[in-house]
Fold this protein.
Amino acid sequence: MQKLSAVEKPWALITGGSRGLGFALARECARKGYHLFLIARTEEALRQAAGTLRVEGDGRVEILPLDLSQEDSFPRLSKALEEKQIIPEIWINNAGEAYFKRFTQTATEEESGLIRLNVLAITAMTRLALSIMKQGHLVNVASTAAFIPGPGASLYYASKSFVLNFTMALSVERKNKPVTVSVLCPGPLDTEMLKMRGDKGKRAAFLIMSPQKAARYALKKITKGKRVIIPGLLNKIMVSCTRVLPLGWIAKIIARSNLR
Ligand SMILES: NC(=O)c1ccc[n+]([C@@H]2O[C@H](COP(=O)([O-])OP(=O)(O)OC[C@H]3O[C@@H](n4cnc5c(N)ncnc54)[C@H](OP(=O)(O)O)[C@@H]3O)[C@@H](O)[C@H]2O)c1
């Protein structure tokens, strides 16, 4: 296959692209020949990520520090894309946050911040993406947590259920359109977010996957327009089990793991 010149390359926009799964997805997009547009809050981390990706590949890497839990970030992003004349062909809403504690121990600022980022920003960014993109692939990142209730991180699990159901429904509404819509549902990944769980995060060690492995699998499926993407056979089996077991049982099993 002929290699695309720097000008001809399409763009991939990835939120939370400075580390973890977002960085791994950015690296995979770069390997597949995309220029990168990365968003996160911390400018220095974005600069470092961009530096690494520029050394590894020959595409352009643009960064934009934005806090997506703030409403003014969406018009700012829209303006930046317009000014740079960038129309992404891959758009991945990956940035998300989690709190691993009982609901009553979660501070109201943590609660509203999580809902603003995991629910409201996903909604606003999806709308923005569909108003800008002409063709390609839009992806929202949920989790295998999206399929079940999660005592010990109830808001996080519920927010990911929103992402899963919203995105699946949208994908059906937009069948046969030039922008495909997918929801990516990874299981536990070896990232900063998992570290927040401390020793509890290591309980299902057999399920923990590297973000690179998840990203490589995800990109293959994203470019084929697959609706629901679950990296890893074990994760697929676990999700299938959640479809047949009573949710009350599952909640008790998760409580044992998250709250012990
Ligand atoms: N790790 C897991 O086990 C796991 C499993 C399933 C699904 N997921 C999902 O995968 C996605 C990525 O998770 P991860 O594990 O890679 O997390 P991570 O290592 O904590 O990285 C999160 C990324 O999002 C950015 N970010 C956080 N808050 C933001 C905000 N308000 N505005 C803009 N950017 C923000 C962070 O940069 P700044 O802090 O600089 O903003 C960072 O780049 C999340 O949606 C998560 O729910 C993770």
Notes: Residues 15-16, 18-22, 39-42, 45, 66-69, 94-98, 117, 141, 143, 186, 188-189, 191-194 surround NAP (CB under 6 Å).
